[in-house]
Amino acid sequence: MVESVVLQARRRAALNARAARDQLGWTQELAAERIGCSVQALQGMERAAAAVTIDFVARVAAACRMDVAGLFVAVGPWRQPRPGRPV
Length: 87
Prior knowledge:
The protein is mainly alpha-helical. It has four helices and no strands.
């Protein structure tokens, strides 16, 4: 169970980091430079293939101008308000 929670958090952070980078219009190369890491390290995080430290996550969040918690917030169509329902 713990492993699946860890994998879920890793996947969520990966999706949100990639979305933030895309929204900023950054390539992986530019983002890695701004984060202060290798392109391979960023690729590992964005594929949810690498176990990253909280320090690395904090650097990614800071470079993307977001709070660390923002990397772990669930996003997707299931979070959108449905027609006729209050926000």
